[in-house]
Structure formats: structure tokens, C-alpha cells
Amino acid sequence: MTSIEIRDATPEDCGTLLQLVRELAAYERAPDAVVATEADLRRDGFGSERRFEARLAILDGRAAGFTLFFPNYSTWEGRAGLYLEDLFVAEWARGHGLGRRLIADLAAIALARGWRRLELSVLDWNPARGFYKALGFEHKQEWLGYRLTGAALETLAREG
Questions:
Q1: Best CA proximity match to 19, nearest among 9, 8, 4
Q2: Are 52 and 61 in contact, with CB atoms under 8 Å apart?
Q3: Cβ(79)–Cβ(26) under 8 Å?
Q4: What angle do CA 106, 2, 53 make, to 5 degrees?
Q5: What is the DSSP letter of 97?
């Protein structure tokens, strides 16, 4: 019989989280992009100033997937929401409903905290788009993501 558990990640799970993040990066066609370390995850997820929370999916006693999330805020609603940065289920564990269970887990967390929405971004080629649509997520077609990093971020900061 298959056993599934979803639980909060702990500082001791940072190595497991990092391995799953690396697997996610490989899935997203960027296997060498991860520069985060276990120390980074420990500091930012479990230190005095927490930047994120993470949940682990355990399938038959083995870490099989995770979510990493943090609050965002809607000025229009005057309420916080949950932003899902990462959702990943290891290839060997797919087909057991872990993705759905992980999303449902976050929905319950959001509602328990009085947060009114759950948001995420997905790559345009990712077949998980159909999964999210089937769960009731709406594609925000009118919104385009932008990001400022590296030298451009530093240059703009110097202008301030």
C-alpha cells in the first residue's frame, strides 16, 4: 500500500530540498542554473528572518516532491495571498497524485491564514499548465512577467 505524507520541511531537510531544486532545474532545462546552497536554504527558510516556507511530500518514506512558497500582498484586496515559487514531484513519484495533494495542502494553508489567493508562474512549454487549469487556476494572459537582475539591477540601484 502506498503511503503519502505532506509535512513542513525542517532545517535538517535542506539537503533534500536542494536536491529536489536541482531536479526541478534539470526538468526546466536549466541544470546548471542552481547556485543556492544548503546554507542559503537554512538561512532563508529557517533562520531569524524567514523568506520562505517549504513543504515536503513523502511517498513510502522517501522525499518525493516539495512546494516552496511565501506570502504576497494585494493592494486592491487589502489582503495577503500565497505565492508558490516552486512545485516539483520527482519523476519516479509521478502518477500518485502528489502534485494535486501538494496544491491542495497550500490551498488549505492559505485559507487557514486568511489569505485570499494562491498564485504561481509556469513556463509556457510546461505540460503542467493543463494540470493547473484542471484544478481551476486561471491563466492571467494580460499580465507579463518582468525581472531585473545582475548588472542591470546594480546599475539602476546606483541611480537612486
A1: 9
A2: no
A3: no
A4: 25
A5: S
3-state secondary structure 26-72: HHCCCCCCCCCCHHHHHHHHHCCCCCCEEEEEEECCEEEEEEEEEEE
Tally of domains in the chain:
1
Catalytic site residue 132?
A: yes
Full residue range of the structural domain in which residue 32 is found: 4-159
Which tens digit of pLDDT belongs to each residue from 20-57?
Answer: 999 999 999 999 999 999 999 999 999 999 999 999 99
> Can you read off the three cell numbers belonging to residue 117?
489567493
Give the pLDDT score at 45: 98
- Indicate the helix (H) or strand (E) that contains 84: strand 79-89
DSSP-assigned beta bridge partners for residue 81: 72
C-alpha cell at 48: 531569524
pTM: 0.92
- For residue 69, the domain's CATH number is 3.40.630.30
Position 113 pLDDT exceeds 90? yes
Q: Is the dihedral of CA 46, 50, 53, 54 positive or negative?
A: negative
Residue of 27, 73, 132, 146 with catalytic role: 132
